[in-house]
Amino acid sequence: MEDNIIFDIMPNPPETSQETLQNLGKKPHLVLQNVFAFAPNRDTLGGTSYLIVNKFDGALPQNILIDAPAWNDTNQKFIAQQGGVHWAIVTHRGGLGQMATIAQELACAVIIQEQEAYLLPDTPTTTYHQTYQITLTAPETASENTPEEPLQVIWTPGHSPGSACVYYAGMMFTGRHLLPDRQMNPQPLQTAKTFHWPRQLRSVNRLKELFPQVKFLLPGASSGMLRGQGFIDMADRSW
Q1: Which residues of the chain form beta strands (DSSP E)?
Q2: Within-domain flag for 97
Q3: How does pLDDT run across 87-122, given as a tens digit for each residue?
């Protein structure tokens, strides 16, 4: 990926009242196998959150929520239908939204980089420095396609002090660390609120070195640039 610098004072402006009302009734939609995307959340300036559904017959669900969706009836019912949430991962401080309320009502563990845990003072959190791994277990009846590699949370400072990305089974959830441009190429985005631009560029290069096998990128904002596809297919792209 070229180190293009994209300037934008507010890359993800708040939705209008009409758009917000429309999103209240929007159900999460399937974007990849077992991965659902929630409608943009006004509480996170139009951010996109995801639910990785990991449940099998005869086993307790191990679903993973990535960033906070709008906490409305539609999303609450959907999450309940999927078996709740076991872990909630925060990719950056802008993705918190109503995470404190969500964690309390769902009784789920919140995983957040140590530098941003102070933003959830009354919520029990699990913190990490560089990386955090979650091993998802499956019953013996699980198919051969069940991923064996652990889910990994990787500290990628730059966009915010505790910015992180999440890798699982060929998919990289990038929060606001990498966002699609108009050609659907993943790019770092420098804004007025960027914490440290050179560190963000270094974090991008580190991701490329650690995860050359990435097949799909799922950004945490700018979903309109994906033209309804819901992800960036890396088969014909470099990053």
Answers
A1: 7-8, 29-32, 35-37, 50-52, 64-66, 87-89, 109-113, 125-128, 131-134, 151-155, 164-168, 171-175, 179-180, 186-187, 190-191, 216-219, 232-233
A2: yes
A3: 999 999 999 999 999 999 999 999 999 999 999 999
User: Is 2 among the domain residues?
Assistant: no
In a domain, 96, yes or no: yes
The pair of three-digit structure tokens given for residue 53, joined into one six-digit string? 């559904």
pTM for the structure as a whole: 0.85
Domain count across the chain: 1
With tokens 């309940």, the residue in question is 80
**CATH value at residue 94:** 3.60.15.10
Helix or strand (DSSP H, E) at 101: helix 99-106
Pick from 151, 158, 140: which is nearest to 195 by CA? 158
The pLDDT of 185-200, averaged and rounded, is 94
Q: 1 lies in a domain?
A: no
Does the pLDDT value for residue 230 go beyond 60?
Answer: yes
Q: Which domain holds residue 117?
A: 7-236
In angstroms, rounded to a whole number, what is the distance separating the alpha carbons of residues 131 and 195?
20
